[in-house]
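Q: I have 326 residues here and want to know how they pack in 3D. Can you give me a structure?
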Amino acid sequence: MTNWLSELFIGAQGWLFDTLVQPLLFAIGLASYAEMGFDGIEFVLLGVIELGAAFLLLRPLEALWPAEKWAERRAVRVDVLYALLNRLGVIPLVVFLLLAPGFSELERWMRFHDVIPNQLEDWLPALDHHPLASFLIYLVILDFAEYWRHRLSHTWRWWWALHGIHHSQRQMSLWTDSRNHLLDDLIAGFWFACLSLLIGVPPGHFLGLLMALRLVENLSHTNTRLTFGRLGEKLIVGPRYHRWHHALDLPTDPRFRYGCNFAILLPVWDVLFGTLYLRDEIPPTGIHEKTPAEIAARDAFWPQQKLGLQQFAKALFKRNDAQRSA
């Protein structure tokens, strides 16, 4: 069964490459990118599988056991658009085109200086025969880094100007995971890819690690009352756990002035660093918009992108003005 599915996937990848991607690359003079184009099809196909799995598994939970019942779902539409653009490769392609020159220079510099990042198998040779154990260790390392990226995006004002777009959704659903400002996606992509490169994540693990984290994020944003119980909530991030992260009103404890429950996959990071907050009730989600422009941008793609850039620039200039006057 596994071999049949693998052959089907490879066959679809090859057909799409031969029929669509390769002719297009040759037509526009980018034949040298053929290998990248072939790999890109794999990314898109995996995105289709991700979206299909998320919809088939999580949408019934939202329909049968919702955390909130909505009279209409119009506000969710923009998140569906984000999910399609993200999972089907449009946003990742933009991120790749922007980051590729920098990564090429970094790899060239590393090769020139004989800097070859050690993989886990170099430190622990026994892992050569245990790829699953190697994968899980890389997953824990990257999840730890993702915790800090996420926490910093709430702490630094210029970053929150972008990340706040993700939190502005009042009707949080399985699609909300992909709702991000494009510049925030760029930063997150750079963070994840750079760290993966530096710690020596094998190419064969990279997409699997990315998919594992994204599937859990789909689950954690789902509009459902599903709970993993007192013990389970501290083992893996679930919908109730993450809903407190998106709560409209933050806990009053000063420890949570920038938010709580920043973990992506493993709650242990929130436990260790004092950012865990759990209660039985189900809070409303969103942020308190302060201007008509912020309210108007809540449910529209381009106004969100524009607003994020405006607030980003404002936060940077305000910081610079404060530094000059100090």
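Q: Anything worth noting?
A: Residues 43 and 70 are 34 Å apart (CA to CA). The radius of gyration is 21 Å.
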